[in-house]
Amino acid sequence: MCGIWALFGCDDCLSVQCLSAMKIAHRGPDAFRFENVNGYTNCCFGFHRLAVVDQLFGMQPIRVKKYPYLWLCYNGEIYNHKKMQQHFEFEYQTKVDGEIILHLYDKGGIEQTVCMLDGVFAFILLDTANKKIFLGRDTYGVRPLFKAITEDGFLAVCSEAKEFIGLVSLKHSMAPFLKVEPFLPGHYEVLDLKPNGKVASVEMVKFHHCRDEPLHALYDNVEKLFPGFEIETVKSNLRILFNNAIKKRLMTDRRIGCLLSGGLDSSLVAATLVKQLKETQVQYTLQTFAIGMEDSPDLLAARKVANHIGSEHHEVLFNSEEGIQALDEVIFSLETYDITTVRASVGMYLISKYIRKNTDSVVVFSGEGSDELTQGYIYFHKAPSPEKAEEESERLLKELYLFDVLRADRTTAAHGLELRVPFLDHRFSSYYLSLPPEMRIPKNGIEKHLLRETFEDSNLIPKEILWRPKEAFSDGITSIKNSWFKILQEYVEHQVDDTMMANAAQKFPFNTPKTKEGYYYRQIFERHYPGRANWLTHYWMPKWITATDPSARTLMHYKSAAKA
């Protein structure tokens, strides 16, 4: 996890522009570099480093003697870099996983390069010999990337959108606000670099869909999967791929930890991590981390899992006042005002703060992406058909970069941690999506039935955790009697009055908030990012029901389950 930044065709003082790069310094607390491009005084790169792999030679932009015309700034991890190096017999100059991007590009061009990368990434690749710039981002957008471009060809690229606020060059755009956009996941873009340092976009290409088996699967060393959709065959294949997803993500020189809510997903990740760390003979015990208010179901469940797997477990307690006070910082870090994203981010932000301050874990695993992939949200019980549930699952995966992946990245990156999400592994997710739709839907009133069934005989986690129903996040970290949801409603009731709500459409014509909580978040967002409401295209909301609030507490299925 790092912060990358680049400007092309910048007509203003670069020392002033360099200050804007410091807005993402939290993403790389270990080192910073600012470098001009030879022959282009108005083009530069900035890099904030979190040293996770090759601490000695890992600074960026990466340049190697063999390709003096290539400049690379990237944020991410390429898990198959050694496999690619060995297969194609590339001569490495460093031990940095990203160096593989330079060799693959020289060998086969940009399209083959991005298709061969097994990992998470956002990159800026400059080829001064061919006067080209390439931008690329992984399939699910696990690593963030934003860009802004003016009418005259000034280009700014950065890991977080906050870097663009106050950039001098952006104020010279003809529009009142330069259009800042998240770079689309699963795409790469080709731009021409002109002699004056300005750019022109040539093409934007989608290189991978989450359903498709990735090209790099041809070269990996996963044991052979069995064909067919017999249930035992599918379960065996899923276990193989999930184990492999965890194993490849052990690539780091820093200590590994794991977020543990006591739910199915994080428990499976933590248990598999413990097993694999023992197999690789790592000389430390896995640290697991849970957060909640006193008597929260999550804390009790996480404690049970930690005792079962033998992790060094940390519990972080917070109260309602601390949660409320964190909202401003959280919204600033997130760059969004989406209601459910903000709600769910407070706990993750506070626990990341604790990890950074009190432990030496830097690389942190979590269960993000499973709900979207395995149809874990409670509203999937309302799906009219398996095919409609499949469509919704793919839509959620496509939009992860706006919601859960955004939350997971910003809340951890704000405190200099690197998050790893094995459920979004290319091979695991594409295989899961290839299964017949009827295999993936909730069964016997239980969501993620196939995933639970897959690990039923493994003894990885306690049976009561394996079959624990999904909690609304607000109920998991607090208690059902006084949930985070309820605490927030009571607080915003005193912050936003009925008159303000009556004028909401006039004050906020785009994505008009329908609730006082939504109005309150929007106010904070506008204070930090005035006029940038279009960074969020739409609110996250459950489907197949009529709802003005995204909370699972509003769903009849959840209410009846909570009473049971």
From TrEMBL:
Q: Where is this site: Important for beta-aspartyl-AMP intermediate formation?
A: 368
Q: Tell me which InterPro entries the record gives.
A: Asn_synth_AEB, Asn_synthase, Asn_Synthetase, AsnB_N, GATase_2_dom, Ntn_hydrolases_N, Rossmann-like_a/b/a_fold
Q: Where does L-glutamine bind?
A: 97
Instruction: List the active-site residues.
Output: 2
Stated EC number for the protein is: 6.3.5.4
Signal sequence, start to end: none
Which transformation does this protein catalyse, written as a reaction?
L-aspartate + L-glutamine + ATP + H2O = L-asparagine + L-glutamate + AMP + diphosphate + H(+)
Keyword annotations for this protein, in alphabetical order, are: Amino-acid biosynthesis, Asparagine biosynthesis, ATP-binding, Glutamine amidotransferase, Ligase, Nucleotide-binding
This protein's pathway reads:
Amino-acid biosynthesis; L-asparagine biosynthesis; L-asparagine from L-aspartate (L-Gln route): step 1/1
CC annotations in GO: cytosol
Cited SUPFAM superfamilies? Adenine nucleotide alpha hydrolases-like, N-terminal nucleophile aminohydrolases (Ntn hydrolases)
Enzyme class comes to ligase
Which PROSITE patterns would you find in this protein's record? GATASE_TYPE_2 (PS51278)
**TM spans, by residue?**
none
What's one GO MF term for it?
A: ATP binding
**Residues that bind ATP, according to the entry?**
259, 291, 366-367
Tell me the Pfam families matching this sequence.
Answer: Asn_synthase, GATase_7
Q: Name one GO biological process term.
A: negative regulation of apoptotic process
* Ranges where the Glutamine amidotransferase type-2 domain occurs: 2-194
Q: What is this protein called?
A: Asparagine synthetase [glutamine-hydrolyzing]
Q: Which lineage ranks, top first, belong to the organism behind this chain?
A: Eukaryota, Metazoa, Chordata, Craniata, Vertebrata
